[in-house]
Amino acid sequence: MTSGIRSLSILGATGSVGTTTLEVVDRLPGRFRVAALAAGRSGGRLAALVCRYRPEVVALGAPGEAERFAERFRRELPEVAIVGGPAGLERAATWPGVDTVMSAIVGAAGLRPTLAALEAGRTVGLANKESLVAAGAVMARAAEASGARLIPVDSEHAAIHQCLAGRRDPPVRLWLTASGGPFREASRFRLDAVTPETALRHPTWKMGPKISIDSATLMNKGLEMIEARWLFGLPPEDIRVVVHPQSIVHSMVEFADGSFLAQLGTPHMRIPVQYALTWPERLPSGIDPLRFDEPLDLRFEPPDRDRFPCLVLAEQALAAGGDAPAVLNAANEVAVAAFLDHRLDFPGIPAVVGAVLGAHAPREPENLEAVAAADAWARGQAREEVRRRPASKTPLPLAAPC
Ligand code: MG
């Protein structure tokens, strides 16, 4: 049953997916060897991981951080190679002997190492959203050329991957489930009075601030539609979203005869992270499974497009193609950061993204440089738009969101 010890490179080792990856490594002794650990900057947490897992290489992406780390730990860790900057992250992603790369660096810094891993033909567990949202065509070409395998880590794509595994009958539609975030029930909220504090309370998943806001606007689901297009190759119009507040069905595929396959489970990131690492094997995860000894209602409803304009904007970017998704993503990052910083109100997020997208003429990006240029243009435009919009208002008393 065992297929030998897998050698891992974990990019983004100190973040939430990186931490979950190491939990899986700890829970399945003898399965994995951690050959490479990479993070943005040094610090106590990374040092503790390096001492514990003794990788062959540690990479630090932020400038000057590798030097700082080497100064402190060179003597204690003489056998560990310490590399830095974007080139260092690429070395960690392509380290000799590594079978599987967990790509979990957050943001644009994850693009180059993910591309390098794909070009080197590694199996890539993909948690970095930008890789497919902003640079899907570039990544897909690289994987195609080298025969590298991309295994999605996000719960929705992991679900679809599982529903499609080993099948010859192609699906006619993909259904990504969305929890609907904390503002699903329209009548209870005035969206113009939403503050970062209320938006950060997500009903089912515990996540960082950026992704929590993206869940509240449904932009997260829009970005996932774009990722699904590259992972599964269906045309934009056959990638759909359905709101499912319980987050039990992680996504579904629909076939020509009207059959649907769904993947269900307790909402916990360790399940998809572990599956990406052990694929095609399945092993115990230690997460409490669903038990049907209590009534369990599963609700599905169409997303309210008036209430969630970010979803519509993502659909437009997906349909426009080329570098439009990169522009959407960059403008959204600027808008969400401004919202979290109380410089933009909640309805300002789609307003800013829509204005930037509306001013953009899509082009097919040839490489990561072209993607970066589109991204930089969109950020500049978005900053201008933020300056034109009202800042977030004094919070009104609201009903508890969940
Ligand atoms: Mg997701």
Relevant terms:
alpha/beta, 402 residues, binds magnesium ion, 7-stranded parallel β-sheet, 16 helices, 4-stranded mixed β-sheet, globular, disordered C terminus
Describe what this molecule looks like in 3D.
The protein has 402 residues and is α/β, with parallel strands linked by helices. It is 43% helix and 14% strand. The chain has 16 helices and eleven strands. The protein has helices at residues 16-27, 44-53, 65-73, 85-93, 111-119, 130-133, 136-146, 155-164, 196-199, 209-217, 219-232, 270-278, 309-320, 324-340, 348-358, 368-388, and strands at residues 6-11, 32-39, 57-60, 81-84, 100-103, 123-126, 150-152, 173-178, 239-243, 249-254, 260-264. The strands form two sheets. A seven-stranded parallel sheet has the order 4-3-2-1-5-6-7, with helices on both faces. Strands 9-8-10-11 form a four-stranded mixed sheet, covered by helices on one side. Helix 14 (324-340) runs antiparallel to helix 15 (348-358). The longest helix is centred in the C-terminal third of the chain and has 21 residues, at 368-388. Bound molecules: magnesium ion. Residues 154-156, 224 line the site of magnesium ion.
Strand fraction equals 5-15%
* Proportion in helices: 40-55%
Q: What is the strand tally?
A: 11
- Using the CA coordinates, give the radius of gyration: 21 Å
Report the mean per-residue pLDDT as an integer: 92
The SSE order reads EHEHEHEHEHEHHEHEHHHEEEHHHHH
Tell me the major beta sheet.
7 strands, parallel
